[in-house]
Specification:
Layout lengths: L2 H4 E2 L4 E4 L6 E7 L4 E6 L4 E6 L4 E6 L4 E6 L5 E5 L2 E5 L5 E7 L7 E8 L5 E7 L7 E6 L5 E8 L2 E6 L5 E6 L4 E8 L4 E10 L7 E6 L5 E5 L4 E5 L5 E6 L5 E7 L5 E6 L6 H6 L6 E5 L13
Parallel strand pairs: 1-22
Antiparallel strand pairs: 2-25, 3-4, 4-5, 5-6, 7-8, 8-9, 9-10, 11-12, 12-13, 13-14, 15-16, 16-17, 17-18, 19-20, 20-21, 21-22, 23-24, 24-25
């Protein structure tokens, strides 16, 4: 398949014209049949019901990089100052772990729950002057362990359907790496390059894996979402309606609706004039369904 064969015109449509500063971490709740996501710039957890178009905002006291649904109800949330439990209305209940970095220069970023009920979250160096960020694992007993380091902006976290491969991206390095994954211990090993790009706007951001093991990755500033086969082949390159998609997630009753958040923060006025819905929530139908998101068991 040539690069031209993979190109598609955009099939995405805007489903929530929110125009968030930095939309991120879309997560579908199978139980509720709603999509949750965050705005990091105007810190809040959002709830969107596609059946009724109802939208609710749950403000947070500081930047919320990501979150996970919790098995007991509510959420586990990664704020700038640490990781917290929150109730179903987004009210903070208890701090589980302090931030393992200097909050003046770093914050939590991309994160999600694995199938063993542990919450994983990466950090990012906001100054982007050193590879001082890392990927962390929060156990169900709230122990926080540094797992991978040497990155600048941790992103693209996902697992293969069989749970034997962990994917992880470093956005400024334009690379996605794959690791063998020991589900019992939560330990990655045998790191290798899964995909690498060289273009300035080829910046891999958030990701999701479908039920056939294909890796879907949003390109911040690249205006596209890629579907990549487990062997690294690019299957499809979907044009996105605005330059800064941030992360995909599978939702809908059949998990065949691909939702993608986006950003408008710090983008040029001329760009926003051409793409006024930047920062909104978009969706398109896909052929291969995703997988239900696990819940934090702590």
């Amino acid at each position: 398949m040539t690069q031209a064969d993979t190109m598609t015109t955009t099939l995405f449509r805007c489903v929530l014209d929110l125009r968030a500063g930095l939309g991120e971490c879309p997560t579908w709740s199978v139980d509720e049949q709603v999509l949750y996501f965050v705005d990091i710039a105007a810190p809040a957890l959002h709830r969107f019901d596609p059946a009724t178009l109802a939208h609710a905002t749950m403000p947070m006291p500081s930047a919320i990089g990501s979150f996970g649904l919790r098995e007991r109800g509510g959420f586990v949330v990664a704020l700038r100052d640490g990781i917290w439990l929150a109730d179903a209305r987004g009210r903070l209940e208890r701090k589980l772990a302090d931030a393992p970095y200097d909050p003046a220069t770093h914050r939590f970023n991309d994160g999600r729950v694995d199938r063993q009920g542990r919450f994983w979250v990466g950090s990012m160096n906001e100054r982007r002057d050193a590879n001082s960020a890392a990927l962390y694992r929060l156990e169900t007993d709230a122990r926080l362990t540094r797992v991978l380091d040497g990155v600048m902006v941790s992103n693209g976290l996902a697992w293969s359907p069989d749970g034997r491969t962990l994917y992880h991206a470093d956005t400024p390095a334009h690379v996605v790496r794959a690791h063998d994954f020991d589900a019992a211990t939560g330990a990655p090993s045998h790191e290798r390059t899964f995909a690498r790009w060289t273009g300035e706007t080829d910046r891999p951001d958030g990701a999701a894996v479908d039920s056939e093991g294909n890796y879907w990755i949003a390109f911040y500033r690249g205006g596209k979402v890629l579907q990549i086969a487990p062997d690294g082949r690019i299957l499809r390159e979907h044009a996105f309606p605005c330059p800064c998609p941030t992360m995909p997630a599978f939702g809908g009753p059949d998990l065949k609706t691909l939702y993608v958040t986006s950003a408008r923060d710090n983008r040029p006025a001329e760009e926003l004039a051409r793409h006024p819905q930047s920062g909104s929530l978009f969706a398109m139908r896909v052929e291969v369904p995703g997988l239900p998101e696990p819940r934090y068991r702590g």
